[in-house]
Amino acid sequence: MTDDEILATARAGFLDEAREMLAQFEAALLAMEQDPRDGEAVNRAFRAAHTIKGAAGLFGYDAVVGFTHEVESLLEATRSGEVALDEPAMGLLLQGRDQIGHLLDEVGRGDADAGTAAASDHLGRQLRALHGPATAGTAAATAAAPATGTQGVWHLSLRMLGDALRNGLDPLPFIRYLSTLGRVQGIRAITEAVPELQDLDPEACHLGFEIRFASAAPRTAIEQVFEFMQDDCDLAVLDPGAGPDAY
Amino acid sequence: MTAATTICLDGDLNIQAAAGACETLRAALAAAPGDVVLDLSQVQAFDSAGAQLLLAAQRTLGARGRVLRVADPAPVVVEALCTLGLHALLPASHGAVS
């Protein structure tokens, strides 16, 4: 494959995933509108936004990352109870959904126009005004974290739990996102638990992964990648100096 | 020797479409007398649920001494299988992409 083909492939994969996540985001918003106390719907919206941001970061779509981060921060503030899920907040989130859609369309077309950037900026300010500076500070700290560790080769052992896919948590974007923190040097899927077709529940997840991951990021940053999947997977992270006892 | 049967799976092979695609595959594999070639050139969307379907189909045939091969995978399929460490499912010509 040529570089152009690899890029086109990556973009198609990203857009697929992101549009799908955006649909889940929208569905969660509609559930939140119906019942503002539906904490699980807020979690679903948050995870969808987080996944879009992560995958966009992996492919260097900075406009998507920057704007989606603002949406995610407002959801985080809602989750923690700092911001009430009232009509203005819901209105901004719904506008945010449309704006993410426009940004993904731009990725699809391979262009970027000033109007879309201005809309991101304008809406981003409104979102920030609601969720306040505290969450922005946390985000800056998170973004700065990866530089603090020393380079080494980690071993990640990931086992998906049965309901992961049904909960909208596909391991694929999470594994892609790892590349923002380092390099996946090797990955092997553990497929022994996949049954024959007649016994397969096609919506249940039977996969696991063994991953060799070179990264200078600290353990917390690596574990954070999988944080939003933590109820749907078992993860063991062995640090570069781990001895036999760690297994 | 029976010639391999080619089955073309088009549309989506993802969590949304998994139940329907699983039925399609079960029926198609049951009807095929021998080895099967899955033509994935027309696949539009593909995720871990799609990868699992391929693995399950391979296991189903393998248990009966038959072979399942993937042919002409769409770019979304190649990217996903490489990312998931499932290069082995791809045709040999794609095996080096990672």
Detailed description of the structure:
The complex is a heterodimer of chains A (247) and B (98). A four-stranded antiparallel β-sheet of chain A has the order 2-3-1-4, covered by helices on one side. In chain A, 57% of the residues lie in helices and 13% in strands. In chain A, helix 1 packs antiparallel against helix 4, helix 2 crosses helix 6 and helix 3 packs across helix 5. Chain A is of the alpha+beta class and 247 residues long. Chain B is an alpha/beta fold. Helix content of chain B is 39%, strand content 19%. Chain B has a three-stranded parallel β-sheet. Chain B has a two-stranded parallel sheet with strand order 2-4. In chain B, helix 1 packs parallel to helix 2. The longest helix of chain B has 15 residues. Chain B is globular, with a radius of gyration of 13 Å. The model of chain B has no long low-confidence stretch (mean pLDDT 91). At the A-B interface, helix 1, helix 6, strand 2 and strand 3 of A face helix 1, strand 4, helix 2 and helix 3 of B.
Concise summary:
The complex is a heterodimer of chains A (247) and B (98). Chain A has 247 residues and is α+β, with helices and mostly antiparallel strands. Chain A is built from 7 helices and 4 strands.
What secondary-structure arrangement, pairings included, does this model have?
The complex is a heterodimer of chains A (247) and B (98).
Chain A: H1 3-34, H2 39-59, H3 62-79, H4 87-109, H5 114-144, E1 152-160, H6 171-178, E2 182-190, E3 208-215, H7 219-225, E4 233-238
Antiparallel strand pairs in A: 1-3, 1-4, 2-3
Chain B: E1 5-8, E2 11-13, H1 18-31, E3 36-39, E4 43-46, H2 48-62, E5 68-71, H3 75-83
Parallel strand pairs in B: 1-3, 2-4, 3-5
Question: Which descriptors would you attach to this protein?
Answer:
heterodimer; A: 247 residues; alpha+beta; 4-stranded antiparallel β-sheet; 13% strand; B: 98 residues; alpha/beta; 3-stranded parallel β-sheet; 3 helices; 39% helix
